[in-house]
Amino acid sequence: MFLQKKIILTFLVVLMACIFPVAAQHHDPDVSWYEGFFQEKSGTSIEKALEQGKNNLMKAREINDMPATVKAFMEIGLIHLTRTYDYGQSMDSFIQALAIEDSLDLRDRQAFTYLAIAHVYQDVSDYDKSAEFLEKALNLNEMRGNPEVLALILINMGKVNASKGRIEDAFENFNKVLSLKETVQKPNVEADALFNLGHLYTLQGQYDEALRQHKLSLSIRRSVDDKKNEARSLNDIGELYKMMKNYEKALANHVVALEIRQVLRDRPGAAESFNNIGDLYYQQRNLTRAIANLELGLDAARESDDQHQMRTSYEYLSACYEALGEYKKALEYKGHFFAINDLIHGDENEQQLSRTQNRYEIVKKETQIAQHQKELEDQKNFRNFLFLLLVLSGIIVGLIIYLYVIQKRSNARLKIAHEKVNQQNLELQELNATKDKFFSIISHDLKGPLNSLTSFSSLLINHTDSLSKEEIKMFASDFDKSLKNLFALLENLLEWSRSQTGNIEFIPETFDIAAMLEENKELLKAQAQNKKITLVNDNTGPLLINAHKNSINTVVRNLISNAIKFTPEEGRITLSVLKQNGEVVASITDTGVGMSQNVIDKLFRIDSKHSTKGTANEKGTGLGLILCKEFVEKNGGRIWVTSREGEGSVFYFTLLQETSKAF
Ligand code: ADP
């Protein structure tokens, strides 16, 4: 059980150890991808790599994925730069990438493209141009502030500056890379900077400092198990010790470098090591060992077709044999030396030529870049102009809309104010009409009862002697009734006036409408008798309704008065009331003059006051029916008339039944 736990624990620790370093360092995948092209290739052949790049390009174009297209162009360009050394082709691809990046503003990718173009120039020894593009990459990266890309740019700047002989600048570049080591956390970058610094110090003759830098670089390369570069560091340290005349240490370092190179089967590297060791022995006058090593160096150089190392081997071997006094051999090797030297120089010339050719190609591409950038600039300017135009139009449209809205709002406000004024005008007109009506009604409705009072009083004055005491008593009582009626009427009018000013509430009460008709019949009987008109009430029993009593009384009285007024002598007026469809319908029927349809249409309307004289020349105001309509409607009822000219009229009005009985 305990053992099992221990195994699990160990497994977890191992797992953590595997995961942790990976998880701790979040390197920019784009930088790693870019750096990958400059590292030793194993496995994939150039053809395969190029085919892969072209496939990627095709796929990206098919789905119109622009960032992927740029990446594929870069991939193809970098393969040409690092493997086929076809700088024209590689520039071509970089230009295509640059064009897309420019038009789509893919700034983060563009830094890599500038860096790659700088590499091309560096490889064809055009260090000025290379520096120019590195500067561009630097400016671009400044905005993004990617430290890994910055380190990459600075390493290359350092190398270019060193090649241009600007040692101070190169120092600054590599030191800057070292200052970034905490943020970048890339041992190979740090080791590279230290290694280059080692060379710069060597150039300046500061061997101790050079040694220090090389050793630092070596220890980093060892820690990351970068064998090939470890051997390079050891070799350069060996050479440094040789310059410092510390042959023992020089030999020790060269031997270790050689061992690594042999394990790696790095034949050109081994040739270099053998030659350096040979040279070391030669300088110490250990000629046998020198020759043995130099011959091994020559073999390795031949195997790997490394002409430079072969030349070194021949040169040192010739010197060794010369020192040994074996002049024939010395001469023989010297001959080989010259031959290969010519070959190398020939190659160098060829390389020089191809460099010139490449330069020519590059200048051509460069003009294309400039042309392209000009086009882009023009496009950008045009775009900016369009944008400005759009913004301006937007502002103008916005202003127009704003003004329109403001105008509309003020119009709406004006309209509301206008409507308010109109409404107030209407109310004023109505109030004015109401006031007129009020005065007319007072005169109209007061006249009726006062007429009957004067007929009573003249009867009493003219016939006092001929009248018996009983008759006088009867007339006095009728006189009293008329006065009371007049009083009630005045009260009515006052109430109505209050209703018009909104001060009266039509509070309904329950009362007997049949009784009300009977009372009015009795009140107006004398008036009817004067015209020999028979006034009959058809009703037999009580009929309760729910309404404002005083206003309904005014309606009844008006309608009976009208009937008397427009009925000639010997006529008949019938009062009746009945229940119909849940409401009460009262009617006043006369055998009077009747009305034409034209007259009927004008009734009940204040805007077309219609009035005719009665059959006994009675005057009117044309307001009685308007008052009736208003009061009936205020009580929730309707009023209407049916009439035939020369035959008579029937005035109807409805009222609500007493609440308890209605439901
Ligand atoms: P007024 O009777 O004071 O003229 P009303 O409003 O009461 O005012 O009546 C308006 C008009 O309607 C009368 O002038 C008359 O022409 C007509 N009218 C009213 N009642 C009758 C009726 N019972 N028979 C015939 N015409 C009538």
Topology:
Blueprint: H1 2-24, H2 29-36, H3 46-62, H4 66-84, H5 87-104, H6 107-123, H7 127-144, H8 147-163, H9 167-179, H10 181-184, H11 187-203, H12 207-223, H13 227-243, H14 247-263, H15 267-283, H16 287-303, H17 307-324, H18 327-462, H19 469-500, E1 509-512, H20 513-530, E2 534-537, E3 544-547, H21 549-565, E4 572-580, E5 583-590, H22 597-602, H23 624-634, E6 639-644, E7 648-656, H24 659-662
Parallel strand pairs: 2-4
Antiparallel strand pairs: 1-3, 4-5, 5-7, 6-7
Helix pairs in contact: 3-4, 4-5, 4-6, 5-6, 5-18, 6-7, 6-8, 7-8, 8-9, 8-11, 9-11, 11-12, 12-13, 13-14, 13-15, 14-15, 15-16, 15-17, 16-17, 17-18, 18-19, 20-21, 21-23
Bound molecules: adenosine-5'-diphosphate.
Features:
663 residues; alpha+beta; disordered N terminus; binds adenosine-5'-diphosphate
Q: List the ligand species.
A: adenosine-5'-diphosphate
Helix content: over 70%
Number of strands: 7
β-sheet strand percentage: 5-15%
Oligomer: single chain
State the separation between the terminal residues, measured CA to CA. Answer: 95 Å
pLDDT under 50 segments (min length 5)? 1-24
The outline comes out as rod-shaped
Structural class: alpha+beta
Strand order of the largest sheet: 2-4-5-7-6
Specify Rg, calculated over alpha carbons.
Answer: 63 Å
Q: What kind of sheet is the major sheet? A: 5 strands, mixed
Mean pLDDT: 85
Please give the count of helices: 24
Descriptive notes:
The chain is an alpha+beta fold and 663 residues long. It contains 24 helices and seven strands. The protein has helices at residues 2-24, 29-36, 46-62, 66-84, 87-104, 107-123, 127-144, 147-163, 167-179, 181-184, 187-203, 207-223, 227-243, 247-263, 267-283, 287-303, 307-324, 327-462, 469-500, 513-530, 549-565, 597-602, 624-634, 659-662, and strands spanning 509-512, 534-537, 544-547, 572-580, 583-590, 639-644, 648-656. The chain has a five-stranded mixed β-sheet. Strand 4 (572-580) and strand 5 form a beta hairpin. Helix 15 (267-283) runs parallel beside helix 17. The radius of gyration is 63 Å and the shape is rod-shaped. It starts with a helix and ends with a helix. Adenosine-5'-diphosphate is lined by residues 444, 562-563, 565-566, 590, 592-595, 603, 610-612, 620-625, 649. Adenosine-5'-diphosphate (ADP) binds next to helix 21 and helix 23.
